[in-house]
Write a structure and sequence with these properties.
mainly alpha, single chain, disordered N terminus, 10 helices
């Protein structure tokens, strides 16, 4: 999310031109968020996401608004609008959506306008229902609003390990297999040649019938050592790349995204 927050800071430059229309955006253009503010904004985003998931929409909207105030990330405004909507606070949802729309790409405006009209329609119905209820005797409370799959935040994408990481694992395993085969072959040939060799004052003396086996055992042993060295290097590279992949996946899991019509606007966690 931090990269997304930093990327959204550039929206502050636009806010200088529209600050009179969108309250609160001019402050983001004047001062670039500090690292501490971005970290706090990320914490608030995580809080808002958790609160949204458990149905605490009022608290979630507060967390997203505070995250926007610290970072200037426009995505947080849209998240706040969604939380206000789910809490039935339609006026505040419309206000947050208007602030987001003022700085959103032109391609999103049609979808944002449609969502605003939906909010206005439900706000008017809410007011009519409140007036009707005030004029009638009190009855049983209305059923609670149940989250629908379309509005619920989609699940986080699974963590993925990149192909180069698996390649290093394959190199390590292949090196270990080759080293084992070469080592075993070298040892077998050395043992088969030993009965036909004699230890003298100088180098080992072997008969003609076992000389080839004795000579070939040494290159095989060297090859086994090289293969085991490659296996060790592959294993070390695999562990390092795996740690990097998991770290990148964990950071990517905290990012937020906005998708526009015709796919529709949604909050992604």
């Amino acid at each position: 999310m931090r990269r997304a927050l930093q990327r959204r800071v550039v929206a502050g430059a636009i806010a200088l031109a529209v600050g009179a229309v969108v309250p609160g955006t001019q402050a983001h253009a004047a001062v670039k968020p500090t690292n501490a503010e971005l970290e706090r904004a990320e914490e608030l985003y995580d809080n808002g996401r958790a609160l949204f998931a458990e149905g605490s929409y009022d608290a979630a909207s507060t967390a997203f608004e505070r995250a926007y105030g610290l970072s200037g990330n426009l995505d947080m405004l849209y998240n706040a609008a969604l939380a206000y909507d789910r809490a039935g606070r339609f006026d505040e949802a419309i206000d947050a959506l208007d602030r987001y729309r003022a700085l959103a790409p032109a391609a999103e405006r049609a979808a944002l306008d449609e969502r605003k009209r939906s909010l206005q329609t439900r706000r008017d119905k809410q007011r009519q229902d409140a007036e009707t209820t005030a004029a009638e005797p009190e009855g049983p409370p209305p059923p609670p609003v149940v989250a629908t799959p379309a509005d619920a935040p989609p699940p986080r994408s699974p963590r993925r390990v990149r192909p180069p990481t698996w390649t290093m694992l394959g190199v390590g395993v292949a090196g270990a297999v080759v080293g084992t085969v070469l080592g075993a072959t070298s040892l077998a040939r050395s043992r088969s040649a030993r009965p036909g060799c004699t230890d003298g004052a100088g180098p080992l003396l072997c008969g003609d019938d076992v000389a080839d086996a004795a000579r070939s055992s040494r290159p095989l042993a060297i090859g086994a050592d090289v293969a085991f060295a490659i296996a060790g290097a592959g294993a070390i590279a695999f562990v390092a790349l795996l740690a990097l992949d998991l770290r990148r996946a964990r950071r990517a899991g905290a990012s937020t995204a906005i998708t526009a019509a015709p796919r529709g606007l949604s909050l992604a966690f």
